[in-house]
Amino acid sequence: MKTYRSTSINYENNQLQTIIIAIIFGVFIALINYNLIFTLLSIISIFFLTLYSIINDKKKYLEIYFEDDEVIIEYPNIQKIIKIKYTDLKKLTYINPRKSLNNYNSLKYIENGKIKKITFLSVAENEMYIDFLKWLNNKNSEIKFDAYPPDENMEYKIQENFGFNYRKFLKETL
Protein backbone atom coordinates (compact mmCIF):
# COMPACT_ATOMS: atom_id res chain seq x y z
CA MET A 1 0.00 0.00 0.00
CA LYS A 2 1.99 2.95 -1.30
CA THR A 3 0.77 6.41 -0.42
CA TYR A 4 2.04 9.84 -1.36
CA ARG A 5 1.86 12.93 0.82
CA SER A 6 2.51 16.66 0.56
CA THR A 7 1.64 19.95 2.22
CA SER A 8 0.85 23.44 1.06
CA ILE A 9 3.39 26.23 1.10
CA ASN A 10 5.21 26.50 4.41
CA TYR A 11 3.14 29.16 6.14
CA GLU A 12 5.70 29.80 8.89
CA ASN A 13 7.96 31.47 6.30
CA ASN A 14 5.07 33.64 5.09
CA GLN A 15 4.32 34.66 8.68
CA LEU A 16 7.93 35.58 9.34
CA GLN A 17 8.10 37.68 6.17
CA THR A 18 4.85 39.45 7.07
CA ILE A 19 6.06 40.25 10.59
CA ILE A 20 9.42 41.58 9.36
CA ILE A 21 7.76 43.80 6.74
CA ALA A 22 5.30 45.09 9.35
CA ILE A 23 8.10 45.93 11.80
CA ILE A 24 10.13 47.72 9.12
CA PHE A 25 7.07 49.67 7.98
CA GLY A 26 6.15 50.57 11.58
CA VAL A 27 9.66 51.81 12.37
CA PHE A 28 9.72 53.76 9.10
CA ILE A 29 6.44 55.52 9.97
CA ALA A 30 7.62 56.21 13.52
CA LEU A 31 10.86 57.80 12.29
CA ILE A 32 9.30 59.91 9.55
CA ASN A 33 6.21 61.20 11.29
CA TYR A 34 6.35 63.34 14.41
CA ASN A 35 2.61 63.20 15.05
CA LEU A 36 2.15 60.75 17.95
CA ILE A 37 -1.51 59.96 17.24
CA PHE A 38 -0.85 59.14 13.57
CA THR A 39 2.13 56.99 14.53
CA LEU A 40 0.12 55.03 17.11
CA LEU A 41 -2.77 54.53 14.68
CA SER A 42 -0.35 53.35 12.00
CA ILE A 43 1.34 50.86 14.32
CA ILE A 44 -2.00 49.53 15.59
CA SER A 45 -3.35 49.13 12.05
CA ILE A 46 -0.13 47.38 10.95
CA PHE A 47 -0.46 45.05 13.95
CA PHE A 48 -4.03 44.08 13.01
CA LEU A 49 -3.16 43.65 9.33
CA THR A 50 -0.28 41.38 10.31
CA LEU A 51 -2.54 39.39 12.62
CA TYR A 52 -5.14 39.05 9.86
CA SER A 53 -2.47 37.87 7.41
CA ILE A 54 -1.18 35.23 9.82
CA ILE A 55 -4.68 33.90 10.56
CA ASN A 56 -5.51 33.82 6.86
CA ASP A 57 -2.30 31.89 6.07
CA LYS A 58 -3.11 29.34 8.76
CA LYS A 59 -6.58 28.78 7.28
CA LYS A 60 -5.08 28.05 3.86
CA TYR A 61 -2.51 25.55 5.13
CA LEU A 62 -3.30 22.02 3.97
CA GLU A 63 -1.95 18.50 3.94
CA ILE A 64 -2.80 16.19 1.05
CA TYR A 65 -2.64 12.41 1.13
CA PHE A 66 -2.91 10.21 -1.95
CA GLU A 67 -4.20 6.98 -0.41
CA ASP A 68 -5.01 3.74 -2.25
CA ASP A 69 -8.72 4.43 -2.64
CA GLU A 70 -9.08 8.23 -2.36
CA VAL A 71 -7.35 11.57 -2.01
CA ILE A 72 -7.64 13.20 1.41
CA ILE A 73 -7.17 16.96 1.77
CA GLU A 74 -6.87 17.97 5.40
CA TYR A 75 -6.91 21.53 6.72
CA PRO A 76 -5.53 20.92 10.25
CA ASN A 77 -5.93 24.49 11.51
CA ILE A 78 -9.65 24.64 10.78
CA GLN A 79 -10.41 20.93 11.34
CA LYS A 80 -11.73 20.35 7.81
CA ILE A 81 -11.24 17.16 5.81
CA ILE A 82 -12.17 16.70 2.15
CA LYS A 83 -12.21 13.23 0.58
CA ILE A 84 -12.02 13.01 -3.20
CA LYS A 85 -12.45 9.96 -5.40
CA TYR A 86 -9.75 9.42 -7.99
CA THR A 87 -12.41 9.62 -10.72
CA ASP A 88 -13.05 13.26 -9.70
CA LEU A 89 -9.44 14.32 -10.40
CA LYS A 90 -9.18 16.25 -13.66
CA LYS A 91 -5.71 17.77 -14.04
CA LEU A 92 -2.38 17.76 -12.23
CA THR A 93 0.14 20.44 -13.18
CA TYR A 94 3.81 20.44 -12.24
CA ILE A 95 4.92 24.03 -11.60
CA ASN A 96 8.58 25.03 -11.51
CA PRO A 97 8.96 28.69 -10.57
CA ARG A 98 12.35 29.82 -11.82
CA LYS A 99 13.34 31.84 -8.76
CA SER A 100 12.13 29.43 -6.09
CA LEU A 101 13.76 26.41 -4.51
CA ASN A 102 10.46 24.54 -4.27
CA ASN A 103 8.41 23.01 -7.05
CA TYR A 104 4.64 22.89 -6.75
CA ASN A 105 1.69 20.87 -7.97
CA SER A 106 -1.67 22.30 -8.90
CA LEU A 107 -4.59 19.87 -8.75
CA LYS A 108 -7.98 20.47 -10.33
CA TYR A 109 -10.81 18.28 -9.09
CA ILE A 110 -14.59 18.19 -8.91
CA GLU A 111 -16.30 18.74 -5.57
CA ASN A 112 -20.09 19.04 -5.34
CA GLY A 113 -20.35 19.62 -9.09
CA LYS A 114 -17.84 22.51 -9.09
CA ILE A 115 -14.26 22.49 -10.30
CA LYS A 116 -11.86 23.36 -7.47
CA LYS A 117 -8.13 23.96 -7.55
CA ILE A 118 -5.47 23.60 -4.88
CA THR A 119 -1.73 24.21 -4.95
CA PHE A 120 0.75 22.33 -2.79
CA LEU A 121 4.43 21.44 -2.67
CA SER A 122 5.41 18.84 -5.24
CA VAL A 123 4.79 15.27 -4.12
CA ALA A 124 8.11 14.04 -5.53
CA GLU A 125 10.94 15.16 -7.80
CA ASN A 126 12.35 13.92 -11.12
CA GLU A 127 11.93 10.18 -11.74
CA MET A 128 10.05 9.68 -8.49
CA TYR A 129 7.51 12.22 -9.76
CA ILE A 130 7.08 10.22 -12.98
CA ASP A 131 6.51 7.10 -10.84
CA PHE A 132 3.89 9.04 -8.90
CA LEU A 133 2.18 10.06 -12.15
CA LYS A 134 2.15 6.45 -13.36
CA TRP A 135 0.66 5.38 -10.03
CA LEU A 136 -1.95 8.13 -10.31
CA ASN A 137 -2.70 7.22 -13.93
CA ASN A 138 -3.46 3.65 -12.77
CA LYS A 139 -6.06 5.11 -10.39
CA ASN A 140 -7.62 7.42 -12.99
CA SER A 141 -6.73 7.09 -16.66
CA GLU A 142 -8.74 10.24 -17.52
CA ILE A 143 -6.56 12.64 -15.52
CA LYS A 144 -4.41 15.04 -17.54
CA PHE A 145 -0.82 15.83 -16.67
CA ASP A 146 0.93 19.07 -17.51
CA ALA A 147 4.05 21.05 -16.63
CA TYR A 148 4.57 24.78 -16.37
CA PRO A 149 6.49 26.63 -17.81
CA PRO A 150 6.06 24.90 -21.17
CA ASP A 151 9.80 24.62 -21.80
CA GLU A 152 10.24 22.72 -18.55
CA ASN A 153 12.24 19.48 -18.74
CA MET A 154 9.51 17.76 -16.72
CA GLU A 155 7.01 18.40 -19.51
CA TYR A 156 9.18 16.39 -21.89
CA LYS A 157 9.42 13.56 -19.35
CA ILE A 158 5.64 13.59 -18.89
CA GLN A 159 5.04 13.51 -22.64
CA GLU A 160 7.67 10.82 -23.07
CA ASN A 161 5.77 8.57 -20.66
CA PHE A 162 2.16 9.51 -21.45
CA GLY A 163 2.26 10.43 -25.13
CA PHE A 164 3.41 13.47 -27.01
CA ASN A 165 0.93 16.25 -27.58
CA TYR A 166 2.50 19.09 -29.45
CA ARG A 167 1.10 22.57 -29.13
CA LYS A 168 -0.52 24.13 -32.15
CA PHE A 169 0.87 27.50 -33.12
CA LEU A 170 -1.11 29.92 -35.23
CA LYS A 171 1.00 31.52 -37.90
CA GLU A 172 0.24 35.19 -38.18
CA THR A 173 1.09 37.03 -41.34
CA LEU A 174 1.75 40.71 -41.69
TrEMBL record:
The chain crosses the membrane at residues 20-52. It comes from the Bacteria. Keywords: Membrane, Transmembrane, Transmembrane helix. This is Hypothetical transmembrane protein. The lineage of its organism: Bacteria, Pseudomonadati, Bacteroidota, Flavobacteriia, Flavobacteriales.
